[in-house]
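Title: [Solved] V-type proton ATPase subunit F 3D structure

Original question kept below for reference.
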Amino acid sequence: MAERGKLITVMGDEDTVTRFLLGGIGELNKNCHPNFLVMEKDTTIHEIEDTFWQFLNQDDIGIILINQYIAEMVRQALDAHQHSIPTVLETPSKEHPYDATKDSILRRARGMFTAEDLH
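Solution (posted by the thread starter after getting help):
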């Protein structure tokens, strides 16, 4: 079993997940559950949210990468996660470009600083 914060998970379209799996991040936990979710046409919002919560509650997960368009589907769950580990990073996908105004981490960071702090 990996130590806390050692694994990266990915939730995304087939192209995104395949790239990360080819990069070597694929793992199965002791219950044979993978550390990735491929978003398909028939994947439900319930499945996405359940998988997200499962990843949040695994002690060996350090980073959750999620395509931003999928993050939008479960935004309430992402916004409810307030801990630094696992870190949730929103990524672009082939069909959906990244929009910084939707990114939950950037929105939180903006709330931490005033305009004067950035000069």
